[in-house]
Amino acid sequence: MRFFCGTREYRGRNVPATIVENIQSNEEIIVILWKLDNYYFGEKYPPQKRCEIVSERFQNIYDKGGLKYIVPTLESWVPNQEIPVVCGVKNMINSCNNEDLLFTLESKDDPNLVVKDLINSLEISKKNPPILRGEEPPNTFAEGKRVYYDLSDVLNRLEMKENHQYKVPF
Known about the structure:
Layout: E1 2-10, E2 13-22, E3 27-34, H1 47-63, E4 69-78, E5 81-89, E6 101-104, H2 111-123, E7 131-133, E8 149-150, H3 151-163
Parallel strand pairs: 3-7
Antiparallel strand pairs: 1-2, 2-3, 4-5, 4-8, 5-6
């Protein structure tokens, strides 16, 4: 699999998109669309730059075998502040650290909801749209527990579909 930052059309405009390509089938699946007007992270990290950084993180973590589980969590990397993030880890005993970071969320985001949407978009890519970063705030993330979402299960099912000549996202 190859993760990269490309562009795709969204509401009549080309926007940056984190995309994964199944190299064997040449099929591409949009993972994340980055809204052009979202400058939540400041001028230093406009949507195009975030797309490039996040796509590279997905690829690096995938190459190291770290996309078995996707973990939404609140981290305290900035003193006196909890930041919602999404990480890729090898197993359920790993916690999120800087090397596992896939992307940082806006404070309004519910990390569990973002990851559920991400898994759904990859699992049923033709029926579910990719996640869109920079939309309206959902409910707050206040469960207080770390939840591990099994991405390897999704990938295994997709590989099984490929062996049966079905189109798959990876």
